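User: Hello, can you help with two protein structures?

Assistant: Certainly.
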Amino acid sequence: MKNAIILSLALVFFGAGVCEAQCDTINSSILCPVPNMSYTSCEDQYIDILLWTDSTIIDTCQVYITIDDGINPPFHLDSPSYNVNFTFLSGGDSVLVDVFGFTWHENETTRIFIDSAFTSDGCKTVFECECDFIVDLSPPYALGIHPSNGSIMDSTTITFGADVFDAGAGVAYDSAASSGWNTTTLFWLINDLPYEDSIVGGTWATRTFEPGDSIVCCLNMVDDIRFESGCTCPANISDTCWWFKINPDLNVPIKNNLPERFSLTAYPNPFNSSCEITAPAGTDVKIYDLRGNIVFTNAVGARSPRPMQKGAETVSLQNGTRTFIWTPDKSISSGVYLVKAFEQTNSVVCTKRIVYLK
């Protein structure tokens, strides 16, 4: 029956080493952390190593361990000691060896060697078993955030996000790949509504918004550290958020599929004194502010166009359209206004967004 020793140190590795024995052969397999040369976010990471022979019992008082933390000179760890604990399993046929209580150095490669051990019959077996790992305690960070925080954008189609960096394990972009825990994700919300969309595994997006929209973006950044429950710690995570706004005074035509004779035009737009508006013949025209208040009405039938309110002057009626000039009076403030044309049934035929600048 195989006699096993599980050696628990604090960190990463996957591997099985075959021990070339002077007496009986000693085999080894590192159980935690895995794989070899991987990153861990545990500053006090422990290590599990399984040692076994084919016929004899390993003497737990004579297992020779060397630790090289990349900072101090390599040192030998006596067994048993404060940092090593042996527990016999399966009626003494296997032993769990825990090595613990160390604080490792960030971004330094730690190497742990087991090069020899004695069996219970007094035979010394020389073999090679090595566990390497790197501690990464720093989360990823964002650079080049766009748009910059608090920006007012003069376009409705915006590319937004940031580049994400990590000095150690790297950035996790695919939770199914190596992180086993989470993945970097870009979220955003519009006008304080719940997050309507996200880019999982990405840090950039391009979307089209409406004038006046306020957008809050957040990056949940995860580094690419493998998480093994009961062995290693979760990946390092950080968040960064910023906001930008779409200029509410943008002139964005409202799209429709109406033929040209059922469309509204306004020139110039934006304007600062008067605006020439062309609407379908036979329609009533009303102008609204963004709160829904009517600031101007021009109710004109197809046969007898005439101004219905101060500030308007009918110019012509031809080719199925009518044109008038709107000159806002002093009570009208600068801003964005909606021009709507209504049929006699009071249904909206078409809408135009205009900008008045005093």
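That covers the first. Now for the second protein you mentioned:
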Amino acid sequence: MKNKNDYVHTVITKVFAILILIICTNMLIGSATATSDAAIQITDVAGYEKAPSFSPDGKYIAFESTESGNTDIWIIDTTTLEKTQVTFDPSEDTYPKGWSPDSRRITFTSKRSGNMDIWIIDVDGTNPIQVTTYPGYDFYSSFSPDGTKIAFTSTRSGNSEIWYIDENGAHQVTNDPNQDNMIPSWAPNSRSILFRSTRSGNGDVWMIDYDGTNLTQITTHPGEDWGASFSNDGKHITFDSERTGNMEIWIMDADGSNLAQLTYSGGIDMCNIWSPDNKTIAFWSDRNGNGDIFILDTTAKIKENRLQAGLLLVIIIGFLGYLGTQSKRKGR
């Protein structure tokens, strides 16, 4: 009888172990056979469209485009997909990665002053205002959600660092002279900033408060990770990564758990940004042979991650309960 019980115990233990292994493997590597991500293309012109950003009211996506023969800032209506050109300067206008909280103004990078600086313009193309005037390169800017600050990347210190500007002037956030720090993106609390840094010896996503405190490494994979963004509810982070060998977009919970690959184009997918309703990301991709703007629903992947995590928890609890029952039986 003892041999039979031992045999049953061994079989049950192996079944639990196999189930845990299967779910953990799937959570770690995602769907290895995935070839499609259901992304929807919303621009289609001969030029390149890059660097999308949702307006806080969700009505528009700003992006840079060469459709006019020059690199300018455009917007697209998220309902009608009607496009409107915002800037017309003969210099390059790029990286419209930030909107004011009232959805009326856009930050962008421009060489129209003879130097690469941060500018603001009304969404109808009026009232362009130069924000930075330093001789170094200032680029990739965004408003804090409360509208009091603009974060940007600058080489004014002799190295690529994260800065912000407010009513009191420009302030340096990171200070790592031997490494690159770039691509800032605000957290919903208007205090923390996600950014890309090589300070670990590899390109990873980090987070820091705007006053230079609470530096935290977010990703640690040996593959190069680039720009990242928070969902507006602060629950998720998406980021661009080359960890598969291609530039694809990944998603994880804000605490780093439930990591999963979102895009599977085999080309370049990057410059991700969340919609205000926390359901969709916009990004640019060359998957169809040209650089265009795409949108992708994230809700299915988030539900899949939660389901897998829930199943894993149930199985582990069941396994521990089974072991506890067996231990009590042996103690009798």
